[in-house]
Amino acid sequence: MVGYVKGRIRREDILSAAVAVYGEVGYHGASLREIAKRVGITHAGLLYYFPSKEALLAAVLERRDAADAERERLLGNPGLEVLRSFVALTAHNAQDRGIVDIYSRLAAEAVSPGHPAHDYFKRHYRDARACLVESFQVLARCGQLRDGVDAGQAAVMFIALMDGLQVQWLTNPAEVDMVASVRGFLEYVLAVPLDAEPVTGPAQSTVRS
Amino acid sequence: MVGYVKGRIRREDILSAAVAVYGEVGYHGASLREIAKRVGITHAGLLYYFPSKEALLAAVLERRDAADAERERLLGNPGLEVLRSFVALTAHNAQDRGIVDIYSRLAAEAVSPGHPAHDYFKRHYRDARACLVESFQVLARCGQLRDGVDAGQAAVMFIALMDGLQVQWLTNPAEVDMVASVRGFLEYVLAVPLDAEPVTGPAQSTVRS
């Protein structure tokens, strides 16, 4: 039992050290030896938990996925609630430079199909897009989206904005307000304030009959 | 004379090989030995042109700066002309995956103040922002910017959008249209079509007196 708990703590320590090292030198520049050194264990000791560099990266991304899933459970209903949760996520990220750094670097490294995190990011973008398209479509049906705004295009733009803000903010932290920019974008595309009450049914059905 | 020309060609070859290797393994993962091998010269031969890894990166960025300066000369007047030139730049980038890849990776790597390209990207963002703020301010004075759009915030958002689109496009090329998204954003913030004629003087002065 004690051994099991110690093993879990050691595993978490390795994952946290990996995130730190990726953030400093990128995934490709990171060596298992350096990560083992940070945790204060031998290279062989690390291989007991993670048999390869790819296995360690997969575990780092899985841990992030688990945190995301937990957060998504709290996302709320498609529409204004989901958009507000993205603003909250941005505010959360603005408190954690380390996570934003590793995410931005990995996303940029993983664009090539040969990278071990490529499929993860491909799926990650598709999931985020599907979630946002649904929300913008719901808002359009309720008359809460500005005329002329396309749900699919707004979703791609919103994700791009959030990603691009991260790199710009990491580079010049004092000059970029990520939360204000994300809110600003939503003000451009919404026909109602972000904090408005969600409409319970499609606007058309209230108008008809 | 022949030696001089050969030296310039060799120098250009090394810079191009460096861009290729950075694109594959990142700046931190790139070794001078690997770059020399690509050009078909020895490590010592490469050191004759570029005495260190940092010197080579500086030369790669200087070459990019020179190309940017040439392009900026063609940017046109602050206002719609400048915005149209950013759309044209996006269309140009969409034809050159390699350049977009290396730029995205380097920008994400260089967020930490210790990175040799950090000052370059800090300046790069400031220059782009200053150029865009000026254009949005000119448009606001001419009544060509939508009410409620802040020039400074729109500039940060526009740069973030362009950067974020690149990573998303590199990851899922068939699902992201960079040019359409950049145009779409400008439609959100402009009160006139992007292809409208620029107003010659401030709109207020025609209204007054």
UniProtKB/TrEMBL annotation, chains A, B:
Keywords from UniProt, A to Z, are: DNA-binding, Repressor, Transcription, Transcription regulation
Q: Which InterPro entries match?
A: BetI_C, Homeodomain-like_sf, HTH-type_TetR-like_transc_reg, HTH_TetR, Tet_transcr_reg_TetR-rel_C_sf
Name a Pfam family for this protein. Answer: TetR_C_6
Q: Which organism is it from?
A: Stackebrandtia nassauensis (strain DSM 44728 / CIP 108903 / NRRL B-16338 / NBRC 102104 / LLR-40K-21)
PROSITE patterns for the chain: HTH_TETR_2
A GO molecular function term, named singly, is: transcription cis-regulatory region binding
SUPFAM superfamilies named among the record's database cross-references: Homeodomain-like, Tetracyclin repressor-like, C-terminal domain
Annotated ranges, domain HTH tetR-type: 8-68
Q: From the UniProt annotation, which stretches of this protein bind DNA?
A: 31-50
Write the protein's name: Transcriptional regulator, TetR family
